[in-house]
Every structure is written in C-alpha cells, then in structure tokens.
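Please review this one.

:::
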Amino acid sequence: MSSSEVAIVRRHIADLEQFTRTDQPFELRGAVLSNDQAHGVMIASLLLKGGSKLDQQSSDAFTEDYLDAIEDLPAWAVREAIRKWNRAESPKLDGKPHAYDFRPSPPVLRRLAAHELANVRVRMIDLQKLCEAEPLIEYSDEHRRVMIERMQDLMKPLGQISSGRQEAAE
C-alpha cells in the first residue's frame, strides 16, 4: 500500500479503537448515556422480562451480578449481545444451543458481549497486519532465469554425491 493508503487504514484503526473503550457516550432509546447508565437501563429491561416477577431484594442481587459481569465492556457490545439474544441469533457457547425463552445469565451475557467486542479487536489486528505487510517483490524473468541457473549449479555436486553412492551400492 502507498503511504497515503496506510494513513487511511491507520485512521480507521483509531476509529475502531473508540469502540473498545468504556468512556464513550452511548445512545439508547433516544437518550445519550454514559456506559454505566446504559448498562443500568439494559439490565433493568432484562430483569423486567422473562421468568417470574422479582422482589426488590432479588432484583438488586441480579442487578449487581449483571453489573459485575459487564462493567468493563462497552455498552454497544452488551446491547448487541442482548439484541442477538432477543432474535435467537446468539453464537453458541461451548457448542451448546441457548434457551432463548429465558434471559441470559450474567456470565453468558458477558461472554456474548465479549464475543461482539472481539470481532472489532480482530478487525483492528487484521488491519494493523495489513499496514505492516512487506511489499511483494516482483522479479524479472531474466532474474529468475539467472537464479535458477545458479541453483542448478549449486545442486550439481549434490547430484554427483548421490549418484556416486548409488554406484557404490550396486
């Protein structure tokens, strides 16, 4: 790539890096929230649906469990994990299908959100490798011919040793 193309890819990597951070604002249901606020809204929504009605003590305990599980993950990744869960499109974990009739447990939600974040990180790594790639060296036909001749000259003594062993064996 040219230096200007590398600069464009590096800018894209920097743009993607913002998606890995938890200090970015997140828009949810028309409101711009901090990462922690967005987590709270998403957890409250999870607790309101599916399963039996929770008393205040159980709700607080579940909220704490979910917050512990996702506190270091960007809100967009958690939201995407929940969206895929709601659509029954979550990737299988440990090769096992999910029971979508229930809300995901805190560890499952964490793994699903981490999977979403990993996709961005893998993309960043791939782009970085692209920026660091060595340019392909194209050799002329003449250069190739000379190299082949030199290699054949180097290989001749080996062929003589091999044929000498074969003659001695006979």
